[in-house]
Structures are given as C-alpha cells and as structure tokens.
Amino acid sequence: MGWFNYYGLAVMAIVMLPNIIYAVKLKNAASDNYNGKAAVIAEQTGRYACMLLMVFNIPYTYFNFWFDYALTVYLSVNGALCVAYLAFWVICWDREGKLKALSLSVIPSCIFLFSGVVLANLPLIAFAVVFAVSHIFISYKNAMNSGAENKNHS
C-alpha cells in the first residue's frame, strides 16, 4: 500500500454514512451539550486527524502491514466493527442514553486504534488515543446530561 489507503477510505465511508444521514434527517436532534473546551478541541483534532490518516499514509510514519495475513485481519476486524457500528445506529436510531453514546463512540475509536496498530501507523495510533479518550468522555457526559434533562422534564 502506498500513500493512499483505499481500504481505509471504504471504512471511513461506511462509518460516516449513518452520521451524514442522521445530521440531514435530524438537524437539531443532537444533544451535544458538553462544552469543555479542551476536551472538545482534543476530540475534533483527533477525529479529523484519524479520518485523514485512515486514508492517507504519511511516508516514514507508517510501516504497512507488519505480519502475515495482516490485510485479511485488517479487513475482517474492521468489517466486523463497521457492521457492529451500523447495527448500533439502527438499534439506537431514536434512542438516547449511555448505550447509544458508548457504542457509537467506542466502536469508531476501536476502528482507528486497531487500524493504526495493524498498519503500524504511528500518527494514527497517537491520534486514535486522543480521539478515543476525548470522544468517549464527551459522549458519556452528553448521555448523562441528556438523561438528567429528561428526568427534569418528566
């Protein structure tokens, strides 16, 4: 694999598809009410860096598949994670709460981190850790705040 990762592009397209549909159909439905500036900046930096690094390989910072059958493992595990991600989107489409928040934040974090490790892509690993910690934290906080708001309105 050279500088462009077609497989990573396909994974990113699969992961982004439900997010785009959700954003278009339910423009104001997102409950992104956590506003800790450092966490939000870390999350967004990690998110966009991971998305770019899933598709574009920076020379001398990644070492490609480093074990036998790594491509098969990469495609199998990422395929399973993408199916799980899509399944949780379907299951949790009109729900709020911790299940939705954690499943839809942990799975893409796993995709980024796993891809970085299998490709020995050092920047992807680093940004995946930043993204995972901040994204899961923010998603959990939003789920907790959303749950508290729902209890207050009842």
Number of E-state strands: 0
Count of distinct structural domains: 1
N-end to C-end Cα span? 55 Å
What does the average pLDDT come to? 90
Shape: globular
Radius of gyration: 16 Å
Q: Would you tell me the structural class of the helices and strands?
A: mainly alpha
Proportion in helices: over 70%
Please write the string of helix (H) and strand (E) elements: HHHHH
The largest sheet is: none
Number of helices: 5
**Beta fraction:** under 5%
Residue windows where pLDDT falls under 50 for at least 5 positions:
none
Protein topology:
Blueprint (H helix, E strand, L loop, with lengths): L5 H20 L11 H19 L14 H22 L6 H22 L2 H32 L1
Task: Report on the architecture of this protein.
The chain has one domain (6-153). The chain is mainly α and 154 residues long. The radius of gyration is 16 Å and the shape is globular. Helix 3 runs antiparallel to helix 4 (98-119) and helix 4 (98-119) packs antiparallel against helix 5 (122-153). The longest helix is centred in the C-terminal third of the chain and has 32 residues, at 122-153. It contains five helices and no strands.
